Records
---
Amino acid sequence: MQNAPTISPLTPRTPGVAATPIAFVQAILLAYARYGIDPQQALKKAQITPDLLSDPRARITALQMELISDAAMQELDDEALGWFGRRLPWGSYGMLARASISAPTLGVALKRWCRHHGLLTDDIALNLQVAGGSASITIAERVALGALREFCLVSVLRNIHGLACWLVDSRIALQGAQFPFAAPAHASAYAILFAGPTTFDSGPASIRFDAQYLSLPLRRDEKALRQMLQHALPLTVLQYRRDRLLVQRVRQTLASHAQQTHSAEALAALLHVSPRTLHRQLKEEGATLQGLKDEVRRARAEELLHRSERPIKQVAEAAGFQNEKSFIRAFKGWTGLSPAEFRKRTHQIA
């Protein structure tokens, strides 16, 4: 294999914005020191100056991080950049991607990736678990990772998350990420690296997302993989505008957080997207927020009116309305009946 994907774990939303902590460049330099190789060519290629290296508060752009990562992986012949006890030669992660590309679903592909990663190194173990509707990818540390621990754990999780998004050609929203180390000085960067809540001093390292993504079919084939490897494209997450489960996630969030989703802003915050992105992606999927709200609220209201004796005011609140008057008006628009008339009719039929 001639080329492998440059899987840069640190690509911010805007490629030209300097958001990647210089600490991760310092970690790459530790790998150069470990192998006794001069990093100056790589630093020059990425235009990382001594002034940047000496400032612990400095940031670099996504492009700079991609350039130095790509150069280091090739010069060191180690796609793990010194994280493990032995090199992962150039092409190792491309080989793992090839082993996963024929899987029927994302869940099978990720299980293969986790299993086959153990063939490359036993310093860490990856595990995919599903519980309570959430899927998690967890890293078990089997040896002390030393000074490169943070960079390793962040990179491995970003790599597998990026691969998952690429395989299904979809943004996979994270429900959360956790790390077993204390919050670093550059902790603010984690809001970019792992969109969603991130906790520290909470191990093992893992990311969590909706388990429904696991059932999505792969949308990439061998030709797409060869093209990706040929151009050494970085596997990023934020380039994906489409979320192929967004309509389902909106329905679930409206149903489970009826009183916290009165506005698009509140709903978007729960889904970890911007209101603009929420409306745009729903439009791409042929849906509208108001239409989904009506669908979820009507189903909930009809169920409560049919199966319970709750007062109309309580039904309105449980269905996500701020007051009884607006509920009655909306319900008449859906059914042509008032809530009380609907309840009476359904009870007569029963």
---
Amino acid sequence: MKVLVTGGTGFVGPHVVHAIRAQGHDVRALVRRPGSKAARTLESWGCELAEGSMTDADSLRRAVEGCDAVVHLVALLFGTPEEFRRVMEQGTRDLVAAAKEAGVERFVLMSANGAVEGRELTPYFAAKWDEEQAVAESGIPYVAFRPSFVFGPDGGQLPIQLRLTRFSPVTPLMSRRRFQPIWVDDVAAFFAAALTNEEATNRVFGLGGPDVVTWEELHAEIRRVLGKRRLTLRVPAGLLKASASIGQVLPPFHGARAAVEMLDFDDNVADPGPAIEVFGIRPIDLRSQIRRAVS
């Protein structure tokens, strides 16, 4: 099977590519800069590189030609509403159209916990919900995953929180909400398995680890693993939002307020039971995730 992977050079992407390659499938990776370090790493693993972007429909058609499946991971963390619409919503619809035209037989989508109808709190959630609809309406057999926070040693929130605990005498708590961290290699295993698991076809699965924690409980566990004693400080949501509103006037922080609103709006808790039952993959617990990140 030849699989086109978008977002293969991001945080989760290399782990997914590695898992797909480990199952013996060929990978073609959509990359904006073939000469980048991340792209060269994928190439060294035996991946074919296809230069292009989610805003170039012609490049998407070229990238998907000859592929049997698509794994779509591209997402923006920050940006203007127009950027979310252009890259995630329209880009996904262009990719789906190209995949259908090319006769792709499987489409596996990275959605997000919270991407449900009527809960379009931020451009990110709205875009993820739109992506799900585009894939479901395409007629291509699909699988979509909605993970809670993804933890790993080389990206996402966990390294940031580890650095805070190691080097700061006071640890700020960003939210009072609960979430359900899942290890990045467990997420990758679900994506790789979804390529051939017929029982999963045309279904949407929540993903999360076995532990549901608050940010305060996360830092307590980090302190136990690191053997550190630290004070914690709960930052009022209003102060976080105000700071984000000021910061988002700068291009790198566009959408920062929306990210804070997402963080504090509701619990980010999934039901991984159906995914575990269908795929037979049991995610590791939070303490194991932290230990792997610091090893």
